[in-house]
Design goal:
mainly beta; eight-stranded mixed sheet; 16 strands; disordered N terminus
């Protein structure tokens, strides 16, 4: 694999970003790279994210949908970032699984998710995913990562959706704060919900092309 060259990386610049020939698409200083014009096999379509405050950590559970623009025989590398934020501690990947969709009609059920591999990258706040080949209409990735919290503040990166040069068709977010916590700031208009004896906060958007990250602050 080629070495990463002339790449400018900072927390708010990243989201799920494609790799092309070992280089991060959308983050090379020259800029202006369109994954689809370059023939990249998938298009980032939508996401559903659940943020849970668990003890002294933020746990992020994400489901990501990628439309297959063309069939492939090889794994597809994607960069998954963690926030580089002085208000947050270290982050680590916990789990990654992937599947194809829609349902496998030959079996009458959806294809089950299977573990997918990832690897850490030196001097970069994030990991490289290896997605399975595009052998259907859609690839679905399900991931879990945790990041240490230093205070009542959490952040999830969404701004680098712009690296794909088009908005997400749909984005859904849930934030679950500790029992007894009161939110004091949301970077988007989250709505309070109650269900199954829990209080949580949601935000949904179509044609999502954000200019700021998901941020929440709270008091206990």
């Amino acid at each position: 694999m080629r070495r990463l060259r002339r790449i400018r990386i900072s927390g708010p610049c990243l989201a799920l970003v494609a790799f092309a020939g070992g280089t991060l698409i959308g983050l090379v200083e020259a800029g202006g790279f369109d994954p689809l014009e370059a023939g990249f096999p998938v298009r980032f379509d939508s996401e559903r994210i659940r943020l849970h405050i668990v003890g002294d950590s933020l746990e992020v559970r994400g489901t990501y949908y990628f439309v297959c623009e063309r069939r492939t025989q090889r794994e597809i590398p994607l960069f998954y970032p963690f926030p580089d934020d002085s208000l947050l501690g270290g982050a680590r990947m916990v789990a990654l699984a992937a599947r194809t969709a829609p349902p496998d009609t030959t079996r009458g059920a959806a294809r089950p998710s299977a573990p997918a591999r990832w690897e850490s990258l030196p001097r970069v706040h994030g990991v490289r995913w290896w997605m399975p080949p595009c052998m259907g209409d859609t690839l679905v990735a399900e991931s879990v990562y945790r990041q240490r919290l230093h205070r009542e503040y959490a952040r999830y990166i969404v701004t680098s959706t712009r690296a794909w040069n088009r908005p997400l068709r749909r984005a859904l977010f849930e934030i679950h704060l500790p029992d007894g916590a009161t939110p004091t700031e949301f970077s988007f208009p989250f709505t309070k919900r109650e269900g199954n004896g829990q209080i949580y906060y949601t935000f949904e958007a179509d044609s999502f092309f954000p200019d700021r990250d998901i941020v929440v602050r709270w008091t206990r």
